[in-house]
């Protein structure tokens, strides 16, 4: 019993090997058609991988830029601070347990800030702003400064008592570099505090809300002005990978009980949603491209089958089972798909290489990007997951789509098929 | 020509399945493009209308230079009378006068810097959605003097409720000290944190007293029935204003970010559409080329019988033309039908609410079905498929009758 079983297995193996050879030869019988089909599959795969890389690059850039607008990857606050960003809702400087947790190798850098509403006045104008006290040397990667400073200098230390303001704010206040302004806010006892500062630097970010909204000074200077000792408003940090933060957030939550620890997706819901919408979009885009492509695939296979009607009838008459004919057409389609995928991945790679160091899309007439929070230089982002998903989509759905032509081929009645011209 | 057309049509249907599949590829892409472009235009319309209705309006009259430097001293003299003139002479337009300044707003516990807006309580509800968003108390009325409405976030941060008093401290137009005590009569909630945190609204006359403005104000806000009428609205307003130094400014200059964001979004969407068109063109090229290749023998016979290569080429081209036209017409019809469904029921996607609150959009929007959204995609695909069809038609000219007839 088991011997005959083994024999059957062996013969099935031989048959499959034979079918594979026939299928391989079949697809090269009409090499022009095969090449056209491979071209179509390759263009489809390219469309999936290339466009996804470009779109991901856009969204990533947006996220990276926003993270530099005082967000970071994770922030820690007193629980009431985000709803009511007042000095009353500040928190003590990090405890030793929290400092230890922040030594985590995954955390690249972290910093503390004072961040409270204030009023800035020049001799002619007054405006509401957010006063931010920073330790300049710790803000590396967390802030758009110092690279956007267009006039003057960056803050030198947490004790620096100069202020840095945006170009648009300077214009509104009718002041220039080196002039004096007055900052007014509240201390924890609700007493009004104010003092004069000299403008030592002006930054230029092209985003009006940022330029008119923030005024920077040294952390300790701000703490002294606001009578808040070593208290801070927030702690911000960046990690090596902004996509996977859950583990770090969990560890920090344990280390800082009573404080609110939030990743950027929660700090800026809009950005978090953008990333989620992007993931959904990728899948829909793959399906749309695949459907557009599958019409061509089914078409080619159908024609390849019809053209061989006589031949298929003949081998059926010679005793080949319909299921094996079905298998053979599927193997042909599998070869086409695999070769197309190889070409498509190659094409994607070739078209991403020239733009991987940045692609200036403003040259294409794309305008207004900075207003949409995007940058004019686009860096494509190729994720292994996207590449794998697109290849799997093509293979799996491609084989499913080939079932129809394969079934048509297997269904021929031998006698009719042979007699057809 | 007649026989050419008949022959081409019959040739197409010699392989009904293949023709149907190629048509399906064209129609599918047409439908996707019509739907996507219609939704895209719809979302822009929604975005523009909602942003402008929040506060900006379609057109504003301002003192020269106020747009770049919104300073208290750049004012429109006799603003209320001018607004009344515009209101009576321009039909279908809502007109409101505003004065805008800055003050330190203090409650018993807290102080914040905030924008102070003096508005006409009778007309403001027609040019802004804020009066309609009062969640506690009431909006301002014409008889109010020392009353104010504030946003929900500001109320929470200042720790005040309806009935509490606020102190305003700032400087007046003449540089004098401006101070007032006002009572909160209403709290609005627009869902936009910025708008809900940084603005206090007062009656215009109260603002003019506090800030020593006399009869001047900063902007006259004019809203028509739709942003598409901005141009004509702005022309009519211009003709009414006798003081030529005043500026009439359209929304695209008042909210440059809005127009730019739309342009950026539109340009990036083009990349996606472009890739889809390339894909369809490839698919169609494939079928056309195959249908020519497999008829090599037939063409050889036609050539041997004396049909000129140009004529055979024209036949093949006519086949492509018939196919592309049929595909386009079907695509437009089905695209319109598919989109019409969303025209009735609206469209929304998961996570849209967060996006909506950022751009101040409602949680669903409606596609715009106009000649642009309906024809743009199908026509581009038509052109791309016709370009793809050129190659097979040209190939005919390279055929040698005898060799061609021997092909199996």
Structure summary, number of beta strands of chain A:
12
Percentage of residues in DSSP E strands of chain A = 15-25%
Radius of gyration of chain A: 32 Å
Mean residue pLDDT of chain B:
87
In total, how many domains does the architecture of chain B comprise?
Answer: 2
Oligomer: heterodimer
Main sheet summary of chain A: 6 strands, mixed, barrel
Order of H and E elements of chain B: HHEHEEHEEHEEHEHEHEHHHHHHH
Count the domains of chain A: 2
Which regions of chain B contain 5 or more consecutive residues with pLDDT less than 50? none
Average pLDDT rating of chain A: 85
What percent of residues of chain B adopt helix (DSSP H or I)? 40-55%
The proportion of residues forming helix of chain A, as a percent range, comes to 40-55%
- Terminal CA distance of chain B: 30 Å
Count of separate DSSP helical elements of chain B? 15
The residue ranges of chain A in which pLDDT falls below 50 over 5 or more consecutive positions are none
Counted by DSSP, the helix tally of chain A is: 13
Strand order of the largest sheet of chain A: 2-3-8-5-7-6
Largest sheet of chain B: 6 strands, mixed, barrel
Strand percent estimate of chain B: 15-25%
Write the topology of this structure.
The complex is a heterodimer of chains A (421) and B (408).
Chain A: H1 2-27, H2 31-67, E1 74-77, H3 96-101, E2 107-121, E3 126-134, E4 149-152, E5 162-166, H4 167-173, E6 180-186, E7 192-203, H5 208-213, E8 214-218, H6 219-225, E9 234-239, H7 246-255, E10 260-263, H8 264-267, H9 269-307, H10 309-317, H11 322-352, E11 359-360, E12 377-378, H12 384-410, H13 414-419
Parallel strand pairs in A: 3-8, 5-7
Antiparallel strand pairs in A: 1-9, 1-10, 2-3, 2-6, 2-9, 4-7, 5-8, 6-7, 11-12
Helix pairs in contact in A: 1-11, 2-9, 2-11, 2-12, 9-12, 11-12
Chain B: H1 2-12, H2 16-56, E1 59-62, H3 79-89, E2 94-106, E3 111-119, H4 124-127, E4 134-137, E5 147-151, H5 152-158, E6 165-171, E7 177-188, H6 193-197, E8 199-203, H7 204-210, E9 219-223, H8 230-240, E10 247-250, H9 251-254, H10 256-293, H11 296-304, H12 309-345, H13 352-359, H14 371-395, H15 401-406
Parallel strand pairs in B: 3-8, 5-7
Antiparallel strand pairs in B: 1-9, 1-10, 2-3, 2-6, 2-9, 4-7, 5-8, 6-7
Helix pairs in contact in B: 1-12, 2-10, 2-12, 2-14, 10-14, 12-14
